[in-house]
């Protein structure tokens, strides 16, 4: 396996681009890293640490040249939801966060080993879109706390922050609210009135402005406070190492699995979208390994779970990044910030961080996806709506679980009542068409049945019921020809059902024949004893052959 | 809705048959009811009560003339597993059991309302067979306690009873063990050396023999003990009524849902098997209502969850039952036993009950199903093995959940990499066949692609990747014709993928056309804006038309 795959055949002319892009992403990532750490309920430095070593490890293996790995909004929210029941003080939370990152890494590596990356995703676009939209809303609502200076607990329904805003309006810290709203407005307008790299520097100005206002104006609002200077230590999660027996790490397993899955899907969709533009090639399974290593690096450097971020990667691409060298530059800059400039952020107001987070996640709310899905097909729209509501009402994990289960069940429900057509010869051709849609010739003794779906456990009984019912209507039938042109696979239940049908039909002096079955399906039936039991029923190459030999028209 | 549907058009000549069958089932059910109540960790009378009113309520609505509802082995085991964490003394357990029955009834009625009975089952035969086999083994192992007189806790792995048997062999109550083994041997041999109704009377003789040995022989082994005489009271579950706030009934919800599902599936499969023989007709959804009412009746009469039993129904059918009147007779006889003869069972040894249970569930262990599934297809065999192991290692609920999820995922995995064929004209016909399997004519400018699967979220990306790759190999291609003859449905993800493909192909000056799409799919695409975006790409009735008009061969 080649290390640093995106740096192969490096051209010297790219160096300038990578340096520039890396620097711009670093300028964006420093305030975001602190903000997302706060969102996850963790100390500021964990966010910064998550933007150093994990980037290097992703660069080592990852196949996307421009994916910017690090702390991201939705994974931060899921981290908060996973850890909140286990601890309340920041230090214990941070200790649990490294454990969580280690478990996320373990799941990603497990997915890598079982080759999950080669499976196409089982999560529909509607589910992901609804999940992301609802999670973004929860994140925005969580920021009301920082913007207003109110202390709002995490209990209560998702709209609790809005409620508190009204109920406790006399306690609102007005300077924080006004500063936050101004910064938010600035962040929303800035990209529209500027161009190129400058458009991405909004958060930098917001941070500088916020610090300036607080220090010069001597305004007393909540700020980030001390961030320990220096680099994280490279060590195993201490809590896990020394107290793993008391540690309730098993409780983190379901969360870790879902964070791993969501983090992977988010990263992969960003990477794929960029690959389309840059004509590069992503290897999904290798991405699992790369993200797994990035999370392991997070676990070993007092950080928390990471993934590839959408906004940040887009900035990276737009700023001209060519390879993962840009990410290495970003990591070095963030490390320098940790070493020498961490005290600059002591006076950074929380309300500014809140504004930065809101501006970053607002584009993730996509009502229109739900609307488009609904217009195309009610059931897809419903899945969007239910997933969206479930994330809001319960939490991110339960919500996505409900969404995935629902979309799978609906698909299976659809295939469980397959389209079954009784067909006849179309004019004098070799074509056989549905007798209900076309003028076709049929023979009273011969029933031609085409099933437009694989035969498997969820629908084989349906076929049997259909044929039984059809035969009870036509007592003259002596031959049933099953046309398998649309059957790609028959599982054990399907095979058993065919056997049962065979026996039942024979009791009524009716023969079952197969026609137009595909090669691989025939191979499988040949290996079983079905074909020998079929005799004197026959296997025909085409329905036309079958009809001719059985004396039909 | 007609009440007592199976008693419509009752012929007087059937009366003798129903009376006889009802009596024989009653003889079988009394010892079984006590035994299954013990298996569920409940007092003996709860089993008897479960064989009175629930039978009448099923008869009121149920569509199977011969299904014998009442306490059954696997539901008893699941009841034990659901209640064991909540209480330890028999009285509290019994109170929880009625609550569980009420929840099971609620789920069955919910399933009825959403029309689950019209969905074909999502549980494959392999999963059910493996689940039943493993549950039967767990039940057999649980009886070692009764047979040996040892006190074996419910903690520890499934093979704990065997281990205890060896470790505590000096404490084995030898009279119990010997009596139990003799009775077991008798129960296994009796049906083979007798015929007709007599063959079903084994348990009756076993009970009589057991009581005789204990009373006459003055042997000191554990017996059933006092059973309160009289009928159950018709009342709401008292515990639920007065203490529902303290009651942890929410914890019972998952168990209740799974018991409802399993109970329904077991009943339905027994009823369907009998319907095939008697040419009667089962209405699956109505069965949900009937079983829901039966369980509600169980909840209101101090019983526990019920279902249709396999062995008992077979006895009912073999004894000549014509309608549910037989079940009414059974219920009346059991009620008479409760009223006048309950003290007869005081001296019934537990070891005899253990032997009766073992003899009843041994036929449920079906290794061969797993073996046959494996021979047909490794993946089906694996599902059997994993479900089987999961039930043994964890518990019935988790096991069936794992089995269901696994079989669904494997099916989706299969459809997520659909068979995609590049096709060409077969000889001079209108048939188009796979270019890899047949000698066909193709045109370098036209790519004909047939997808043999519905286009949905799990596989639409796969199609796009396939076409992208195929086009990069053939730069002359100007037209891609997608043949939809095997596509029955396109979901929103599929539709979005088609749109994306359209745009990407157009950028490369390639047109996308559709051919042989089915009516319902075209209707859906017509309602969306895809067809208008397709232009100047076209929609063709057949691939042959498409090829001719696009100037290919």
Automatic annotation (TrEMBL), chains A, B:
Record flagged with keyword Transmembrane helix? yes
InterPro entries per the record?
Answer: SLC26A/SulP_dom, SLC26A/SulP_fam, STAS_dom, STAS_dom_sf
Q: Name one Pfam family in it.
A: Sulfate_transp
| Domain called STAS: residue spans | 436-550
Question: What UniProt keywords are attached to this protein's entry?
Answer: Membrane, Transmembrane, Transmembrane helix
Task: Mark the transmembrane ranges.
Answer: 20-39, 51-74, 94-115, 122-141, 172-190, 202-221, 252-276, 288-307, 319-341, 348-365, 385-412
Q: Tell me the SUPFAM superfamilies matching this sequence.
A: SpoIIaa-like
Give the location in the cell: Membrane
Q: What domain of life does the UniProt record list for this protein's source?
A: Bacteria
Q: Does this UniProt record's set of keywords contain Transmembrane helix?
A: yes
Q: How does it sit in the membrane?
A: Multi-pass membrane protein
Concerning NCBIfam families, the annotation shows: sulP
List the protein's name. SulP family inorganic anion transporter
